[in-house]
Amino acid sequence: MATVHTGMTMSLDGFVADRRGGTARLSDPAASSGSAYMNALIRETGAVVMGRRTFAMAEDPDWFVGNYEFQVPIFVLTHTPPPVLPRQDERLTFTFVTDGIASAIAKAKAAAGEQVVQVLGASVVQQVLRARLADELHVDVAPVLLGAGLRLFDDPDLESVGLKKIGVREMGECTSLRFQLVK
């Protein structure tokens, strides 16, 4: 059965985007396309769950096919599906889920089979942690201070989430932290 991994790269002071919504300062070439880290992540991923804002970061939704790292079924958590579906192919498909995080995770797990479901986007990461639907939390800490912006863990309901450290790895300039969620 699929496992659910969630997390993001954040600054040392806990932000996943700067005050203008930018993420460029958090980027690390050691974790970019073509790196051993990213290649391993791509190989293990069977489906992706993302929020509408993460989906909308691609100005042209048809861009995903053939360009996005994860050429797998993608489940977009949204209140309103787009009027026109983005381009899809035999590997990359889109399902717009309007009935909540539990439904999105269940559908993604079914699509992923024995592989990993990656959960992306600050709001969706918070939702999956709050609902105790993740198996692992992965946080890559970039050596930058942003001072303000979008915080990954800015949710008081997360204080009861139990974590057990299962790995620490240096990856270029970033430090990758892996935790198992204690259920």
Could you give a short description of this structure?
The protein is α/β, with parallel strands linked by helices and 183 residues long.
What does this molecule look like?
With 183 residues, the protein is α/β, with parallel strands linked by helices. The chain has a single domain, classed as Dihydrofolate Reductase, subunit A, CATH 3.40.430.10. Helices cover 21% and strands 33% of the residues. The chain contains five helices and ten strands. The chain has helices spanning 36-44, 52-56, 64-67, 101-112, 122-130; strands at 3-11, 15-17, 45-51, 74-77, 94-97, 116-120, 136-142, 150-151, 162-171, 174-182. The strands form two sheets. It has an eight-stranded mixed beta sheet with strand order 5-4-3-6-1-7-10-9. It has a two-stranded antiparallel ribbon with strand order 2-8. A hairpin with a 2-residue loop joins strand 9 and strand 10. It is globular, with a radius of gyration of 16 Å.
